Amino acid sequence: MSGSVFGKNIKMSTWGESHGKALGVVVDGFPAGMELDISDIQKFLDRRKPGTSPATTPRKEDDAVDILSGVFEGKTTGTPISLIVKNTSQRSQDYSEIAQYYRPGHADFGFDEKYGFRDYRGGGRSSGRETIGRVAAGAICSKLLNEMGIKVMAFTRAIGDVEIDEKKFDEKNILLTPTAMPDAEADKRAMELISKCKEEMDSVGGVVECRVTGLPAGVGEPVFDKLDAVIAHAVMSIGAVKAVEIGDGTRVSKYHGSENNDEFVMSDSSVEKRTNHAGGILGGISDGSEIVIRAYFKPTPSIAKTQNTVNKSGENIQVSIHGRHDPVVVPRAVVVVESMCALCTLDLLMSNMLSKAENIIGFYKK
Amino acid sequence: MSGSVFGKNIKMSTWGESHGKALGVVVDGFPAGMELDISDIQKFLDRRKPGTSPATTPRKEDDAVDILSGVFEGKTTGTPISLIVKNTSQRSQDYSEIAQYYRPGHADFGFDEKYGFRDYRGGGRSSGRETIGRVAAGAICSKLLNEMGIKVMAFTRAIGDVEIDEKKFDEKNILLTPTAMPDAEADKRAMELISKCKEEMDSVGGVVECRVTGLPAGVGEPVFDKLDAVIAHAVMSIGAVKAVEIGDGTRVSKYHGSENNDEFVMSDSSVEKRTNHAGGILGGISDGSEIVIRAYFKPTPSIAKTQNTVNKSGENIQVSIHGRHDPVVVPRAVVVVESMCALCTLDLLMSNMLSKAENIIGFYKK
Amino acid sequence: MSGSVFGKNIKMSTWGESHGKALGVVVDGFPAGMELDISDIQKFLDRRKPGTSPATTPRKEDDAVDILSGVFEGKTTGTPISLIVKNTSQRSQDYSEIAQYYRPGHADFGFDEKYGFRDYRGGGRSSGRETIGRVAAGAICSKLLNEMGIKVMAFTRAIGDVEIDEKKFDEKNILLTPTAMPDAEADKRAMELISKCKEEMDSVGGVVECRVTGLPAGVGEPVFDKLDAVIAHAVMSIGAVKAVEIGDGTRVSKYHGSENNDEFVMSDSSVEKRTNHAGGILGGISDGSEIVIRAYFKPTPSIAKTQNTVNKSGENIQVSIHGRHDPVVVPRAVVVVESMCALCTLDLLMSNMLSKAENIIGFYKK
Amino acid sequence: MSGSVFGKNIKMSTWGESHGKALGVVVDGFPAGMELDISDIQKFLDRRKPGTSPATTPRKEDDAVDILSGVFEGKTTGTPISLIVKNTSQRSQDYSEIAQYYRPGHADFGFDEKYGFRDYRGGGRSSGRETIGRVAAGAICSKLLNEMGIKVMAFTRAIGDVEIDEKKFDEKNILLTPTAMPDAEADKRAMELISKCKEEMDSVGGVVECRVTGLPAGVGEPVFDKLDAVIAHAVMSIGAVKAVEIGDGTRVSKYHGSENNDEFVMSDSSVEKRTNHAGGILGGISDGSEIVIRAYFKPTPSIAKTQNTVNKSGENIQVSIHGRHDPVVVPRAVVVVESMCALCTLDLLMSNMLSKAENIIGFYKK
After folding, report:
1. Are D346 and D160 in contact (CB under 8 A)?
2. Which residues does the record give as NADP(+) binding sites (chains A, B, C, D) (predicted)?
3. pLDDT digits (tens, 9 = 90+) for B314-340
4. Are the beta carbons of C14 and D223 separated by less than 8 Å?
5. How far does the CA of residue A356 sit from the closest CA of chain C (Å)?
6. How many CA atoms lie within 13 A of A41 on its CB side?
């Protein structure tokens, strides 16, 4: 099995290591005729760029994207869209020491067992920089969804024990606060928590929430390719995610049926739900209400605090991992979650067009 | 996209509706030469059979499996294994009324929007009976894993707010208690809760946990086909699951890095971890310790309590769903979770054999 | 890799051995709402049934198909369609001797090398009976194509050196002649050739041609999933096929560009081609004219004539393969070729609906 | 369905248009630890480079490849290998006129019907330059096959009616003659034919043959992913190919079984075949003898001779296509066929390792 290709109707193949020459993605199966400008993609990549606030690593990464194929005279052509970001600020010398031991919380040991060796520079393929390709692909998918009136929007729900207050939710804050929280007050408290973590040479986890609005009912395939199952795959595949939930998520395990069921009601001759415990998905198929996804991120494993571990010679050693690491990955991961959800939504939206024989007959009879 | 085929090296194609003639699965890509007896599969199916305790529906389903292909003289042949279970006790008349309205918490509305109509008998393809094929396939995968010393074992962790006590964990109870809880005391309390739900014509949710032991390090593909991502896909695709977590799961979002990182340590010249917050997976690749997965199930949506909903004529109505429904799906879902985890584990274990050039050269040079 | 699943939007999973309990197919991804009766499928299977003429084996196989899922109240539901044919007339004792040696022209040796052993009864999975699942799936795909005015029709073009004369082409003969030739005179000569082969305890090869009419331009994906590439895969995967050609096929290698190029011309304000050397496919995409595919079949390898071979003990031996074998597979293979071409055409027709952004936006905006 | 990703264990995603910024490929799933130098790939690309003889276009294309990821310290890492070739000599002005009409023998009309418009510069995605990615991927696969003693070698079998004489077959000529023919005399006659074509402003077709030696028996999956079926898909997906055959190919349709069957014989305690009409594949599985594949190419459709066609305004017009076109594509296509065959062979070789349960158990028990 190959592990760097994702999607069915739209396939994205990501490639690149943290300290290689470049990273990128090939997006195959994207439909023709959508206007696409480099700035559509760049603005997504800028949201995952570090160095813009104290919440992130001081590393500077320009991450300027280039479109190498699949766009002609400003429009997608229906053929593979190849996107590339060159690595410019990588300092490989930071990592030479790491080659000799297994960093706690990292994939180093697994990689060595799997492949016999690894590109140890900055995590290589398991670096957070791997997500550049995902975000570039997500930007394109988001744009097409927008043209259909479907909006995918992620934000930071919590950092450590600081959670947003729904009553203070202000969407525009997502792009303005350093934590990507929609609640400016929670953002302040979260920034204080992050400062404290940095002082303590430690890191902290958090929660990203993603909401999809405007999605019609009927999207998602009934058994293995349920909308929530495909999204769970996509979101759990983001490096530091340890849990994924839909709607009320883990809480439903304590509910009674009469609490959890969302009652249907007619509203202006359309079917709606009074509540949305289900997070917009029933039996794996969208029900026309808002889709709600939450991803739980672990704290950044690279910390300067002293830790015990072992080296490749089989000795117990102590390490302190220096370098320019994010004290929390969540603010930069927001756009990654959003990108993965956009890709899955578009992919299943396309599949859904093929669900009825009459749609196919109608398409070709016209 | 088709939604009823899952897996890469081993593909299972499930088929069948709740009240159709039969349900089944075709397992393609399963390796040749493993001894396989019908009882290996039947004992898995018996674990999801209803009617054996007050925790489940009084419906009687024999669910006797037959092997139609892929086994010759007691051994798998390497060609597709076709397994079938005939429907015998289905009473379609129970469901005629349901055809006219959308049951809250069910996929009825989504199905109608997607396909234009639906097989309304007992949920059709979105019935829990759809999992028969999954469990039959899982039984076969489990057997091969066992022959390698790898064990996949799921159990009920919680029903409603009744959770097991790890100190009272006794593995043999899993197959003995009506709730599939390994803690006999918790089981009793859970049974009381279930009784109360039934009296109140209501239902309740719960949590299934699955553990994989004996899995070597190196299994899982680094980017999209991470071990946890593939498992999240598989487990979230089970009807009533609303959240999936690995290791400490949602809790990690509140941890600091120094708490969450599992330190490596040498033990008898092998690399081990002192703790297992990670649930045995780092960067999507197994690290040699126990894999821990949890699935959160919503309460059974079919309840006899009166609920508001709408019918196909667009009228607001009140319904009370009678029929022989489980007050909680969790005890019967345990083996479904176990089956999906077994399939994913075996599939990625097979992929991992292809990770090193020297393995391939070595195989063909011998 | 698993080898018994084919298709992308529509996936067919075939299963079953020549002398197992049954054979069948699961068709996943077929759209909902098409009327489907068992007779739609049975009439296709009857075309591959032996025992109806001197051109085929005297074995009697009823091959009665049953629909186990995916059809409700006479219509496809959009969920997997499971089709089964029970084995009834198989006589396993015919084959006990074969287990000990490698039949020339058969896959016996490859199977043993690959899997360590094989189901030797009647060829097991490599038997021509494997195609039952393909034909059952093809019947369904053909029906939907017909509803769009697209017709897939295969026939016997040649048996040995007896080829049809285009001027005597009469379509209705395809279903009437024992050879499935549209030219009744060629059919007579072919039947004489077959008689002679039987007398000489020998067999003969032949050519099946398939034509697809009514297919709009634009079907096929430009690079690897070209319409002709996918068809070549599908047709070459039929047991005895050794060559596949499109349009003028092998002959084009001797043409000049000025001969081979089909000139475009306006006809009633639509673009047409004056000639069709290309067989309706340019650059892998349909051009609106008739699709022409030819499959070249080798002679049946099972012959009663004495042959040299080796046995499993590594001894050189002589064998004479008795049993009820077709002296030529072509007449029964016609419907297999037609079925595979129908599946590929429908699959790519569905993909093509997703080629333009405006189609997707239009579908969801309505 | 997306059309620019091919392979199962090893997936190659090609991208790029004739006159875009660059072309390339991402190879995912390639095993770790193989030494790989840029020259291993460049030497393959140089074989498809034009401008080196009168048999090819006078265009100069440097086609210098760069490795952007997946190789570390001279070895493959097991993660995606991204390869890029920048476009340097493209002159877009040559093609402005072409935008307005449909070139006979080209995919222009199909592209417009499918996507609504096309990148008309030099054929865009349907240009022969698309094969750059295939050849770069094939070079890598070939290298790993070589390390196992498996050799994939293609050559020009015929150009127009000039065919090689097997008795004059000298392998080293393949890389020395301008036509890539192994028979130097045939090469001379072929060059004369090509000259004549150029004078007449015409083009000609030809045949490429590919042989795989050293492949063990057992490779190929029995039903849809037969070795020959996957190769037929891969080879037919090369732009100008109109027929693919295995072994004696089309000729077998006229054979009797007694002629066509290859008898097995013991030779030094290993099973061999006396003849090889089957081209090394029986029932889709390799039998241990040489694999023989032939691809029939049509003449280059771009010719300077006057042709009739239609333009986008629906007018009948006459055109003469100028530009620097190959009078025959075959010599440059040799390495493309070889590359596709190498990829398929390696992909199925990897699958075959997973055929027996004992292989998997043995791998993990060690």
Report:
1. no
2. 48
3. 999 999 998 778 899 999 999 999 999
4. yes
5. 5
6. 26
